[in-house]
Amino acid sequence: MKIQVKIIKENADGSANAQVDFDKEGLECLVQHGLISLITQGLDVHKVKPEGDEALIQRAKEIVKDAKDKQLIKAAREQVGEHDRNLS
Prior knowledge:
Order of helices and strands: EEHH
Number of domains: 1
Strand content: 15-25%
Distance between the termini: 19 Å
Radius of gyration: 18 Å
Largest sheet: 2 strands, antiparallel
Shape: flat
Number of strands: 2
Number of helices: 2
């Protein structure tokens, strides 16, 4: 997986213009994390608590956590695999 961020210009206000290069797996990772973040923030910000649907909200949060865990495990496995290939 490849995700590279290159700062093109640092602005006076502290922000920066950047170029992001990524491969297909990097794009997939960025999109997954972005969607997970949006869902999590939406649940928290809007304090979605329809009456009687507490279990549904809890299940949605569990799904989001599970997706995050799976992505972290996948990334760790890929890093170990790359490390092993570099040793060969």
